[in-house]
Give the backbone structure.
Amino acid sequence: MTETRIDYSLGEYQAAVKSALDKMCRDNVIERIRSKDYTLWKFRPDEIVNRLGWIDAPAETLAKINDIRSVVDALQKDKISDIVLIGMGGSSLAAEVFGNIFGSKPGYP
């Protein structure tokens, strides 16, 4: 296997990015995200703790991989070739997203 090297430059942003990354390391941001430390986002837990489920999404998905594979197998068997997945954070925003995507029927709001 051949290793491919990728070089990049952040130009004038290099110092700011390095400073931000250094601060994230000092503040243990990755560990705090994994432990659902709400103080990274808010001062009070009631404002955020019910919005941190995404942190567990990879592990939960892996735990359900057999179910997911079964659905994929069934779709392939039925020759389904295209799927549209529409997602939006916050259930109250879904209607706005659908309205922006699909528009409205003439004569209706």
Observations:
- The chain has a mean pLDDT of 88.
